[in-house]
Amino acid sequence: MTSCFEKFYNVVEEKMGSVFTKYGKFVSRHPWKVILVTVLVNGLLGLGMIRLNVVVDVERVYTPIGSQASKDSTKVKNLFPDLSGSNFIGYQMPDMGKYAEIIVIPNGGNILNERFLKALQVFHTFLLSIETNDINGNTVKLSDICAISFGKCVIDGDLFVDNQFINILNTSNAISFPYFNHTVRGPIYYEQNVGGAIVNSSQLQLASMLLLRVNLRTDSSYFTETAKKWQKNFVSKMKVYSSSDFNIAFAHSESLSEELNENVMGDITVFSITFTLMITYACVATLTARCDVVGQRSNLGFAGVVAAGLAIVAAFGLCSACGVEFVSIVGVIPFLIIGIGVDDMFMLISGITNTDYSSSTEDRIGETMKTSGISITITSLTDLLAFAAGASSVFLSVRNFCIYAGVAVIFCYINQATIFLASIVINENRTNNNRHFLTCMRVNSPDKDSTKETSCKIVCCTGRKPNNSKESESFLDKFPGWILPKIISIPAKIIILILFAIYLSVSIWGITLMKEGLEMRNLVSQTSYYYEYRKLLDEKFPLGTPVSFVFNKPLKYSDLNVQQKVNDILSLVKSEQTVLDSVEVNWLSEYKADKSNFNASSEIEFIKGFQGFLNNSSNTRFRNDVVIDKNNISIVASRVHVMSKSIKDSQAQGKFMERMRELSSDRTDLPVFAFSPAFLFYEQYVVILTQTIQTLGIAVAMVFFITFIFMPHPLLLLYITTTVAMITVGIFASLPFLDLTLSSITMIHIIMSIGFSVDFAAHICHGYMISEGPDRNERMKSGLKRSGTPIFHGAISSILGVIVLAAAKSYIFFSFFKVMIVVITVGIMHALFLLPVILSLIGPPISNATVSPKNETRSPTDNHKWQDIALASNVHIPRAHTGKITEREKIT
Asked: Do 750 and 728 contact (CB within 8 A), yes or no?
């Protein structure tokens, strides 16, 4: 008795099948109109690309939208004025600022060398001489746009060209570390500017590298824009600079974004190679095995690839017109969509191949849409919903990628169901009229006067319409049906189950090795100037992070209780193992130590004394840390600073940020929060795993809702769910072995894998359900013969879609290639090996048994109608090879 699930399946299949059949017949009656209208719409939408807005800001693209760090940065900007043009202090910045950095590597291996320091002075002078032009065309020197402190350009690390420093080095060779007490500028903290430092008794003995940081003004849009122009000139100067005493590596605040964008745009140009590969494969795969100029359909392969290409143009144009910003990772979408489009193309070709060749073109196209049309609808919807889930991500890179990809999937589906389907109609009309597949000229059938013709003329100038599916198949079509059913044997099943048990065990272990985070240097190619700079910075220099504790509401600082609470929180923070105990920038403690100015008799006197305290040149650095109201009667905001130890592990950086926030949020008696510009990047390390799991959960739920609608059988849903889970576990586990980490970039790859995993599994399950056989083994063999070919072509086309990215320069493209190869390989292994074994052992039971046949002749048309019933009702109907039908089939 048919279950409620099967009844529901029958109703849905019947209703949808009717709609798709009517649509297919409509296209068959108006093929040229459908093609012209669809191409015109695609072209008009493509014009939207003139509004393409490329966003290359790494901070904005690859960090969470609306994060706590972003909100805190806004608070700091609103609370404290930008004094970069008069009293710049690096650790007080609300963001990473504008800058240029140079890592100087002495040939002698030690920066504490007189010859090197003299060469460094020459280089320092050269830096100051770099010029640019402003928006008005006026020549601008570095001294005009650099950040200012103590009346001079702020270049962190220029301590090593300072005369006081050099004199002390030459006379006593006793350089205090990590502070240098400058007579004018006060204590200078320089630990972050020396790489490979060797310290003994708080004195610097040796350092193998020096980091110079040129800070630029940001206190107006004029300075910000001029700084960007100066940075470009800086790069061109650094690329040609040479010295016999040292080597350099360099970058500026926009380098990562610019180099990333340049690499991605360069890699996008290789899409032409992918397009050529796909056309070649599509034409070869559709080339029939029979030497016949009428039955050949390689033109369909060309049409299918072009339809997918037009979908990319339309999607990019529509998204651009709607104001969706183009982020670098969107550049991989053409490589993805061309594979999906060709996969749909082979599904439709498979559909027309398996129809009744004695029927009219209109009926055959209707039948194609009834079977293959529904199939590509399932795969397109699963892909679309997976991307829809990703569009809710807090990462701009993930969100915009998924929007572009989702829209591209829609247009790819529309184009295959219009342009390509209409191309099939035109091709069928051509074969019906016995026309040449290239010239479209009428040709003779090979059996007419063949004895009078040469062999070459028979092959090249004669032909006829194919009479059955075997005559329409290509050599590649035959391969899966021949090899795949051989795996349904007892020894093969045992081996497959053992291998997949090992796979699952290794995958679970591999997940424990997975790391989170995104190494910035990996975003660009190894030939980029930024890569070498970032590699040296990460490996040779301490990565300490200045952290500000901001008191963002008025407090009565003259009150001893308030002073004690401020000191308590600093003591608590500095007791952490991740915080340097020796570094503290505390205006309050320094002011209290100044006996000549400190006065706490009242708040007004406290503020008056503090203003006198600031008159000392060594104390001007605190001017940016205290905001006094206009009436000089209240301090409305202040901040103190500490420095973290060198933390290079991304997960440890995320935990450090959370700990600093926890320490500040615990103080309910103080209006305080912890902030560092580095927290803007640390945010991704905290949320990436939860974001990935959340997005995957939503994607899986949405995808399986669609799967349930089209295949409402609990066993099938269980198997598909298990398969997708195993594939996803394998992808997570592959990341450490591929030298990848879980980041907003690999998160995109994992979201894509959901759609691919469901596609592969659904095809096999559907093939099993609509196939016949006396037992599960035979039914699965038949299902593999039916579904193996589209899956095989889909896998090959997807691999060809990304294979050229193996030579990509950018991390985004190369990581996409690596993950996609894993997704396709693991997905194919599960779909063609594990699932068939599971279904052959414990698949849904046979709905009716085969009985002894009572022969009755059935015409090809009748046979085709019975196949329709089997597809529509999901009921097992054996097809006897003799062309007979059984009494049981009549009753059914």
From this structure: yes
